Amino acid sequence: MIRAVGFDLDDTLAVPERSRTRLLAEALDAGGAPELTDVIDRVAYLDAHANHRTADSRVPVFAELLGPHDAEADPAEVAAAYREAVTTALVPVPDAPELVTALRDAYRVGLLTNGPVRAQSAKLDYLDWWDAFDAVRISGDLPAGKPDERAFAALLDALEAEPKETAFVGDHPVEDVRGAAAAGLRTVHVLGEGDEPALEADASVARDRLARDLPGILREL
């Protein structure tokens, strides 16, 4: 029986109104590196981001990205521009706030999100979601981020829950689903358009049906 529910944040409970490729280009332009908007792509960003999951900010991410190029831009300025662009582009998935509120009547509900503390905190400030959960854990404050088992252990500890009685809900097949499954949690894979359920997922749900379908899924796990 499920007694606790953990959520991922980005692309699970909230999505950007503009593509992340566009947001990255906007940040490079605003941060003083317009010549690199067609050079540094989303794949390169994700690779650099994965190397700094426990960082306090995205400054080391952009330092790594800008390093190989002859650019005068300050990584701190680009990081600040990207944080502003991503944060203000975020909108909740339909009825996500109401879903979380309703679930707290029956479960302990937490958030486990990968990313620098400043970046993810800014998103929670913007969405006014700090108090929406019983516990919030950000990888920048932890020894490791998802899919590392230590990240899920931190969430479980905060929720005072056991793995077998906890479901984790997220969109990333590796960080969210495979990581949570390896840590002993039940898993619900949130699918965007065209996505296929991860093999490790106990259940899956279309992101635009999350609020409608998730309560029933949790009751059946």
TrEMBL record:
Keyword Zinc-finger carried by entry: no
GO molecular function terms listed in the Swiss-Prot or TrEMBL record: metal ion binding; phosphatase activity
Keywords: Hydrolase, Magnesium, Metal-binding
UniProt-listed Pfam families: Hydrolase
Cofactor(s) this protein cannot do without: Mg(2+)
Keyword Metal-binding: yes
Any single GO BP term: small molecule metabolic process
UniProt similarity note: Belongs to the HAD-like hydrolase superfamily.
Name of protein: Putative hydrolase of the HAD superfamily
Species assigned in the record: Halobaculum gomorrense
